[in-house]
Amino acid sequence: LKRIKLILNLWRVVPLWWLCHISKTWMMIHADLKRWKEIDKKDARIFAFSVIHFLAKKEFRNLLQYRLHYAKSYVADFFTRIFFPPMETLMIRPDMQAGADIQHGFATIIAAERVGENFGVNQQVTIGYKNGKAPIIKDNVSVFVGAIIIGGRYDKLGSKVGAGAIVTNNIPEEATVISPKARIYSNTLIKGIETS
Description:
This protein is of the alpha/beta class. The protein has 6 helices and 14 strands.
């Protein structure tokens, strides 16, 4: 059944593959595909793997459209938006380097000044401005579910931002930042749920 779906969709995948291949950002797109392939642990040729990602992974479509739009490959960008609709709730706005990986990009905003290579992000993450300054994220940084990174600061090489963490300061190289443990705010009955 997957093979039939693949064959039936070649009419829209082959032109997109060609448009990507001749764009200025082909090397970045290729690096993104290689990284996604490594993370997904797939042993497929890059063309077959990209076909599957064009069809099934809306997060990859957003990343692809971001690359094509900022490379001023307007025909490819237009073609992608028509035949491969993006994920509506995923926004990418920084200068993002090659090898980006977006897992479950639902409700994610990436509005950094710059994002380095091999950046990984999960769902419901907000990376954005505070007092007119956006963060600069270095290479090999991973940001996990629900994390918030705001302001003009730097995440150093290889740092990890844990689920639910709120980051407003610089993070040292190779550091892992986690959110504080949940605490009981009130020991009273809240909307029918006992907290004691």
